[in-house]
């Protein structure tokens, strides 16, 4: 029964992560129509929080499974190898972004992705720019989440031991590091004065919460019915308030005429780099409601009808790199076709192509990889 439950949980996590990756793709296509309907339009966070939280949850689950099978030492080594794989994926993604931006610039396509991919710097100083990417000092368009992800996975074995033994001290330490994160950011190598797009000293809080949710659910989840009901009521209130705030945030003309200027200034903008507190609160409110949906079996039922999306989430690193290429490629196509910012019909066509490519290629890659695993197991059995 535990094996079945663990498999179901993995499928549910893969589905949610697959949806988050689709959101990341369309959110990074300038002019996208579907980007108007992703999570960032309805809450005060976006798919990045989902991706990092689930990375922590998956790292904890993978460590526990490997530890039970091969021991703690082997589990730690596997996570460190995974960290190296993520770093290589970052370098590949960064180089691809530079090359795609270079092609768009050479074709004189007026897409914002040209500057976002840092192609002008690459054209001016190709060797220095590539060395900066390898050294993590430069993190081109979309690829910027991968360096901190690699750091988190590499340090996960240490974090896991601490979280399992002292969950309260672990989360308090994570919160303290998050509070100090703006002062620590300058310690990281960066070609930009503002530093890394994702401050890992801040975003480790999201990863840590994912780890703790998987490793110590007894510590995270309330046991008493009355407390659980209070959590649910609070989560609904937070989700509704954040939905209203997100709606107003994107439509300042609705409140500028009557709301005192200092009120929105206190809350907005919500800095993503340092993981603003309101982003964390918004995420936690919706995360609790999603957890209830998972417990009720709704997410698992949905996963049965969304197999290709589950495959995207299951093979997230490959699909992340693919999605980065698709984002830049589709933006270049739509801007090139329109000769500037595309009309909504052109942009929507680009969105459909982007999602279709990710579903088809991601699904094909997943099936191919799983078929290889089955073949490898068959050879072992026959031997």
Report what the structure shows.
It is a single chain. This protein is mainly α. It has one domain (11-256, 268-382). It has helices at residues 2-27, 47-70, 72-106, 113-116, 119-124, 126-134, 145-165, 167-184, 200-215, 217-220, 225-249, 262-267, 277-295, 298-304, 307-314, 316-338, 344-382. α2 packs across α7 (145-165), α3 runs parallel beside α16 (316-338) and α8 (167-184) runs antiparallel to α9. The two termini are 30 Å apart. Mean pLDDT is 90; it is low at 1-8.
Concise description?
The protein is an all-alpha fold and 383 residues long.
Keywords for this entry:
383 residues, mainly alpha, 17 helices, 0% strand, disordered N terminus
Helical element count? 17
The poorly predicted ranges are 1-8
Shape: globular
Helix fraction, binned, reads over 70%
Rounded mean pLDDT is 90
Strand tally: 0
Rg, alpha carbons: 21 Å
Tell me the strand percentage band: under 5%
Protein name: OpgC domain-containing protein
Pfam families: OpgC_C
InterPro entries: UCP028704_OpgC
Keywords: Membrane, Transmembrane, Transmembrane helix
């Amino acid at each position: 029964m535990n094996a079945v439950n663990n498999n179901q949980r993995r499928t549910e996590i893969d589905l949610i992560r697959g949806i988050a990756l689709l959101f990341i793709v369309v959110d990074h296509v300038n002019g996208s129509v579907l980007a108007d309907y992703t999570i960032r339009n309805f809450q005060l966070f976006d798919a990045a929080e989902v991706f990092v939280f689930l990375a922590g949850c998956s790292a904890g689950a993978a460590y526990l499974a490997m530890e039970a099978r091969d021991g703690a030492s082997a589990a730690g080594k596997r996570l460190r190898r995974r960290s190296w794989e993520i770093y290589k994926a970052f370098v590949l993604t960064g180089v691809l972004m530079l090359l795609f931006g270079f092609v768009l610039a050479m074709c004189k396509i007026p897409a914002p992705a040209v500057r976002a991919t840092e192609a002008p710097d690459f054209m001016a100083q190709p060797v220095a720019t590539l060395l900066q990417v390898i050294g993590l000092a430069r993190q081109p368009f979309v690829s910027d989440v991968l360096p901190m992800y690699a750091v988190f996975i590499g340090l996960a074995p240490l974090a896991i031991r601490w979280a399992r033994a002292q969950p309260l001290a672990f989360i308090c330490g994570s919160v303290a590091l998050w509070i100090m994160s703006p002062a620590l950011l300058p310690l990281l190598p960066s070609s930009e004065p503002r530093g890394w797009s994702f401050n890992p000293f801040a975003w480790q809080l999201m990863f840590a919460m994912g780890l703790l949710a998987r490793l110590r659910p007894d510590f995270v989840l309330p046991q008493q019915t009355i407390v659980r009901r209070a959590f649910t009521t609070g989560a609904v209130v937070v989700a509704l308030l954040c939905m209203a705030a997100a709606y107003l945030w994107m439509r300042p003309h609705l409140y500028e005429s009557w709301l005192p200027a200092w009120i929105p200034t206190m809350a907005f903008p919500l800095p993503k780099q340092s993981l603003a507190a309101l982003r964390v609160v918004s995420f936690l409110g919706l995360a609790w409601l999603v957890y209830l949906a998972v417990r009720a079996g709704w997410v698992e039922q949905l996963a049965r009808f969304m197999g290709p999306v589950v495959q995207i989430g299951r093979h997230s690193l490959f699909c992340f790199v693919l999605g980065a290429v698709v984002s830049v490629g589709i933006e270049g196509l739509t801007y090139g076709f329109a000769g500037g910012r595309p009309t909504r019909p052109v942009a929507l066509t680009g969105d459909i192509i982007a999602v279709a490519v990710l579903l088809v290629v991601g699904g094909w890659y997943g099936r191919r990889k799983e078929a290889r695993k089955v073949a490898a197991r068959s050879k072992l059995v026959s031997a």
